[in-house]
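Posted in: Structural Biology > Protein-Ligand Complexes

Title: Requesting predicted complex, flavin mononucleotide in pocket

I'd be grateful if someone could produce the 3D structure tokens for the following input. Sequence and ligand are given below.
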Amino acid sequence: MKQGMVYSGMSIRVISALLITVGLLYFSLPVRSLADQSDGIVEESCGEENVNGKKVLIAYDSKHGSTALVARQIADVLCICGYQVDISRARKVEDVTLYDAVVAGSPIYWAKFLPGTQLFLKNHEQTLATMPVALFALSTYADEETGLVRDEVKGFFVDKELEKVPGINPLGEIGLFGGTFTLRTLFPVEAFSMKLENYSDSNYLNEEVVITWAQNLCILFE
Ligand SMILES: Cc1cc2nc3c(=O)[nH]c(=O)nc-3n(C[C@H](O)[C@H](O)[C@H](O)COP(=O)(O)O)c2cc1C
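-- Reply #1 --
Done. Output follows.
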């Protein structure tokens, strides 16, 4: 009887240890995937050879890397046009006065910009009000046939963000770019909520749209 109790006590300990191990493995997955994805988050510069070129900052926030990719595509175009460009996570930017122009961007998450971009716009509003600023957003609210982001995204989401920073008056058209997500790579809470809403994997990334918009910026920032 006593022996049996010891055995059953041991097996409870073994089962608990197994459960804890499985739990730890499970919860470490998002942490690992965050680290993997942050590899795709760019913090870099281009156009150093454009010694007389104006300096442009691209400040963005991103959770899963697609906005970082778009930021890099915009930077490539601006550097070819002769600008010197720094790309930075919006929350890391301290001084926008180092630049002649700023491009700010965010994906839309649950109808809002990500906090990094929101805070960047709010904290630097006074300075940004005095300089050329362009704005872009990523969204998967797109037309199934054309794959292009629906115009309503501006009214639904972007204009609401701009109302919070009335000093900022973006140059030209807001860049509305198709985004992407894969349920498998989302954090568990995100994936759960997206499944609840019946959303499935989406990919509306379109480099041509981004390049065309950035080429127009080359002229606007002159
Ligand atoms: C949890 C979640 C919520 C989202 N909410 C919206 C939304 O409210 N409106 C929208 O147009 N797109 C929404 N999207 C699409 C994202 O804007 C798109 O996937 C974007 O490319 C993600 O950017 P990131 O890879 O830089 O994080 C959502 C995506 C996810 C994963």
